[in-house]
Amino acid sequence: MLSSHLVLASLFEANSPLSRETLQQRVAALQKSSRILDQWILERGSPETISAFRQGIELINQLNPQGLRLLENAMLREVNNTVFTPLFLRYIELIEAWEAADQEEAFLKRLKQRYPHSTQAQAAVVVRSAARARQELMKQGLAKINEALQKAPQNVLARTLRAALLIQQPETLSQGIMAFEEIQRAAEANSLEAQIVTFYREHNQHQLMSPQRFFPVATITPVSYLSERLDLQIKKLSPKAWSAIQQGRRMGSTGGGEPALSELEQALEEQQQNPVAFGVLLARYLDLAQTANRLPRAIALCAQLAELHPQSPQAKAAYGYVLATGQADAIMREGLQRLEQITTRDPNNFFLWTARVLYLAQTPQRMGEALSALDHIKSTTQFRLAAVDHLFTQAARTSPAVFAQPADSSPLKGQ
């Protein structure tokens, strides 16, 4: 995934047919950027694998999709060997370039059936299946938000939720940051609208700014302070919800627990025609739902509001946002747990380490963990550092705002 962000950025909001010229440009770009992986395959693969890989790349450069099948056959042959790692990385780059999700799905099914006990096969299936599911959820959520914006192009909440969704995808992170900046410039300073935008932006950025080794945090407002500022507005909009939140805090229940969620749900129903008030209530509601592990409840509520109020752009946008983020978060947790289970059976497997990096890098919120995992990979044998360099270089090119590091902190420095 790290090496595919440039391709994915062009896919996230568009489903237009792939032209031959576009495909040719993508394949040519990958041919240049993936030389390190190609070299590793040619040096470490078996004679049969090297032959199949060369034929496959030749066909791919001719834009013949049969080349992908040859790479699949090579991966099946090397499924339990170290050369599976560069083959897999090369394959998913090309799958993304080709927009060949159906072919990849069929291959993963074949891989799973043929090698049900292979840890490398299992990890490959987990990483790619989760990536596809998450991408689809994000597209669905964004589509609903875009529907809301068609009805109300200047709706501040719909625009803010769109930016918040974009910032949660590595391939659209920069686009999301620019969208936030545009909304904030248009909002009157210190207005309630500006506070809503600030909350959604900084709440997301808090997750992007950790660990501090990678992300400076000096300009970010503490999350607790953001929540307290929202509570001042909620006190005016729904005194009952505010009281429930305060009572929960006094009792040691973060954010008021169930009573606060119930009161906020009632307030959201009452304010569904007011984008600013609805945005304040929604921000605090989602904050509490996440803390209390009640995101499925939040998804159900927003679905109900969107159904009951089809003409409300903020209700539709809220449903799109919660549907994407809530379900995607569940997919990430389940997949990561599965990867950890697989790794305990084969703790020194290099591909499993790489798979963890790929998996974590699916969201900017996990980039810090992904980079920590890269640190672990860098401590392995020298011949494997080529793959690390490739991963890090591609990530730095595609997400410079996330991967910014001091000039003397090259990922291979001192190795």
What's the arrangement of secondary structure elements?
Layout (H helix, E strand, L loop, with lengths): L4 H7 L8 H14 L1 H10 L2 H15 L4 H12 L6 H15 L2 H14 L4 H33 L4 H11 L6 H14 L5 H17 L14 H15 L1 H12 L6 H14 L4 H17 L3 H14 L4 H33 L4 H11 L6 H12 L6 H14 L1 H4 L12
Helix pairs in contact: 2-6, 3-6, 4-5, 5-6, 7-8, 8-9, 8-17, 8-18, 9-10, 9-11, 9-17, 10-11, 11-12, 11-15, 12-13, 12-15, 13-14, 14-15, 15-17, 16-17, 17-18, 18-19
Give an overview of the whole structure:
- With 415 residues, the chain is mainly α.
- It has a domain at 2-132 and 330-403.
- 74% of the residues lie in helices and 0% in strands.
- It contains 21 helices and no strands.
- It has helices at 5-11, 20-33, 35-44, 47-61, 66-77, 84-98, 101-114, 119-151, 156-166, 173-186, 192-208, 223-237, 239-250, 257-270, 275-291, 295-308, 313-345, 350-360, 367-378, 385-398, 400-403.
- Helix 8 packs antiparallel against helix 9, helix 8 packs parallel to helix 18 (350-360) and helix 11 runs parallel beside helix 15 (275-291).
- The two termini are 25 Å apart.
